Amino acid sequence: MNAQQLIAAALDPSAILRAQSIEADAWQKDILFCRDQQILMNCCRQAGKSTVVSAKALHTALYTPGSLSLILSPGQRQSAEVFHKIVQAYNSMNRPVRAEYETQLKIELANGSRVICLPGKEETVRCFTPDLLIIDEASRVPDDLYRAVRPMLAVKKGRLIALSTPFGRRGWFFDEWEGTGPWKKVKVTWKECTRITADFIAEELRAMGQGWVDQEYNCLFTALEGLVYPDFEKCYTDFYTLPGLGKSVGGIDWGWRNPFAAVWGVLDRNDVLHIQDERYLRETPLHEHAKALPKIMWYADPAGRTEIEEFRSANHTIRRGMNDIRLGIAAISARIRTGRLKVNRFRCRNLVAEAKLYRYPDAKERTIHGENPVDEHNHALGALRYLVSRIDSRFIAKLRRKAPSAADGPIETDAFLPTEGEGPSSSSPRPRYSGGEGSGVRGQNPAKPATIQDIMNDPTLWETLN
Ligand SMILES: Nc1ncnc2c1ncn2[C@@H]1O[C@H](COP(=O)(O)OP(=O)(O)OP(=O)(O)O)[C@@H](O)[C@H]1O
Ligand SMILES: [Mg+2]
Q1: Same domain? 46 vs 176
Q2: What ranges in 314-442 are assigned the alpha helix state H?
Q3: Ligand 2 centre and the CA of 164: distance in Å?
Q4: pLDDT tens digits, 85-143
């Protein structure tokens, strides 16, 4: 950039994007030019939100000497992505102000401005007085971290930009979006982003379902109402645990039209289960799965008797998992609460995606189908449940004594309401490879069995863990 272009970029921040051959969308220009103190951006995946805020941060650093811009997100890896975009933009402008100091997470310019990328931990974010605070993936930033960073803006009247896709009707991002606070609110759905095609969304809809598309592309906060595992994020890890550190175990949920799902990892000596790989494929013959999966201890959906036999013939060690979803969910929840479940979020993307969608029925569905979770997004999670139901068999046995049910326990609730006049659809036969709880018995227990909510709300449930 020559001196003239530099002056032009001072007046027109979209020139920073142009230097990267990006022509800013109308909504991006709006963000770049606006001078609001607080901005909330509820934008779909890949809309270009990180790109635009990185230009805004670079503009602040270049043209407000001595300024401090901070980037915060739930994890340092995500903040580092935005930081990387800032450095890219800075390079594409030929570094008009010299860098005095530069690392992967921090840059200090000769004009005294700094841009710093923060880890998502409360104790490390207290000592700054920023001019600009960017919170990426804001809906996933915990409330206490948000509360800890807000006071930093008081003295200099720093600007706050929070950007995200929605993540359920909870947390500060949702509250601020719905509230009447002094925020400039910008919403960009996939329809406003010309780079996302209708064909792509149709495929996302087919593969991931309406809840996913509503959350990730339609900017709706509805998808996560009544999640079965609302705290699943607590399990995320970036680390890979070596198999030698414990026992290698895995779980399998059989599937054909629904995906075949297997998750596996290591149960270490401290009873922490590290799930670090998954297989998630539709319409793939069983022998291919048997060939692809490691030879470890497997626990599988007991409904798939022939599949279990076929795996045995392929020299796999495989046992039947347990089918009571109430107890399985309670056991997984207990692991989440006590930090004994770790999930490698980069290698287990389908497991992570399902945990964001697997939910209890809403009020209307409940009146027709009952209390159990909706029978979708439960393939990788089903595999995990078969595994946990067996490695935590003592915990489960104790629960079972408190909450007896029919032999196999209840099955999940159907996702779709019947059309008017139709009754509950429990009688409809399930296809082979249904991926659900194929052999579940519903309505055979004369005494009303305890619901999942009864079990989870029972204070004595957790006593074994204390
Ligand atoms: N106005 C634009 N014109 C062309 N390409 C753009 C524009 N804005 C962003 N992009 C490109 O779109 C892609 C996604 O951008 P970006 O990472 O900023 O999106 P995001 O909304 O932060 O995505 P995610 O939801 O994955 O965090 C990038 O390759 C970026 O260069
Ligand atoms: Mg982004």
Answers
A1: yes
A2: 325-337, 349-355, 363-369, 380-391, 393-402
A3: 8
A4: 999 999 999 999 999 999 999 999 999 999 999 987 766 777 899 999 999 999 988 88
Radius of gyration of the chain (CA): 25
Residue 224: per-residue pLDDT: 58
Distance CA 313, CA 130 (A): 63
CB distance 46 to ligand 1 below 6 Å: yes
Six-digit token string for 92:
């594409």
Q: Per-residue pLDDT tens for 450-461?
A: 666 666 666 555
Same domain, 270 and 155: no
Q: Are residues 184 and 261 in the same domain?
A: no
Tell how far the Cα of 81 is from the centroid of ligand 2, in angstroms.
8
Q: Is residue 436 part of a domain?
A: no
Q: Is 24 in the pocket of ligand 1 (CB under 6 A)?
A: yes
Give the mean pLDDT of 283-299.
97
Residue 450: inside a domain: no
Same domain as 237, residue 191: no
CA 28 to chain centre: 26
Q: How confident is the model at residue 401 (pLDDT cuts 50, 70, 90)?
A: confident
Ligand 1: centre distance to CA 45 (Å): 8
Domain boundary at 337, 367, 399, which?
A: 399
Computed over every residue of the chain, the mean pLDDT equals: 85
pTM listed for this prediction = 0.62
CA gap 134, 176 in Å, rounded: 15
- β pairing state of 260-268 and 341-344: unpaired
Q: Which of 46, 71, 88, 140, when mutated, tests ligand 1's pocket best, judged by the most ligand atoms within 8 Å of its CB?
A: 46
Q: Tell me, yes or no, whether 146 and 250 share the same domain.
A: no
Contacts of 67 (CB under 8 A, 6+ apart): 60, 61, 112, 113, 114, 131, 132
Q: Report how far ligand 1's centroid is from the alpha carbon of 48 (Å).
A: 3
Q: How far is CA 395 from the centre of its chain?
A: 27
- Is the confidence at residue 52, as pLDDT, over 90? yes
